[in-house]
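Revision sheet: structure tokens.
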Amino acid sequence: MSQPALPALAEVIRSGFTEGRHRGSLVLLDADGAVEFALGAPEQPVFPRSTAKPFQAVATLRAGLDLRGEQLALAASSHSAEPFHRAAVRKLLAGAGLTEADLRTPADLPLDEAEAEELLRSGGQRAPILMDCSGKHAAWLAASAANGWDLETYLDPAHPIQLLARTALEEATGEPAAHLGTDGCGAPLLAVSLTGLARGFRALVLADPGAERRRVADAMRAHPEYVAGTRRADTWLMRAVPGALAKMGAEAVQAVALADGRALAFKIEDGAERARGPVLAAALRRLGVEDPVLDRIAAAPLLGGGVPVGEVRAAF
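Predicted:
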């Protein structure tokens, strides 16, 4: 029997006409961790994609790699491959006696469109270090090198660093992984519910100071440009809202936790990136966040003849 359609989280309005809708699931948790608001099926497993990276960074700390500051934020990043990101990845690798050649990320262009255009204009081409997950991979490689673990197989689900990453995710979300897959960067990918994901982010910000989870959360919040980039919504949000922890994932997955434990997670079913900002801003407002940055995050204009004629907007 087919599943009922998920509710619309965003609608596409062109010239006053509803052209389409982006459906999905969303959950908001209050400061005590209880579900305050939900749409769709947030209890169903989804692939969290890069929203799992903070927990994967926890794994590097538990492996004994003492990352701090920008390097720890980079380990949890989906970076834009801006020059400072590339330099940081190279520095992290070099500190472990490694080079870009050790990365198992697929060759890619920068995630940030402006950065990709500049790279191509200057004669650059796809490279593993430009892939947005290269910071995470560099941290895994460095942790593996420090422990004498095999570097060729660090993406195998049975590799010690991946077992640590799985435990970190399952402990924080309070759920066993529902499915094992492969992420776009080649890393193991574990399905959890959106409710579990929101609880996991809540666990990051509420962990005791000095604990691995808190160290990752604090590094991300102190160095958001290394988590995302200078032109990215996660950076804007963490810069503008004190104590906010934000991380996007591919296929329009998003998780956020606020300093007091309020948290959210959502996924746009069709993976439409254009719906992410409007849904994120509306969800944060429902959690009680009011800041001018939300207008910037929500902006998703539709163009006609090069001028705005409509928008993608939240439907709740």
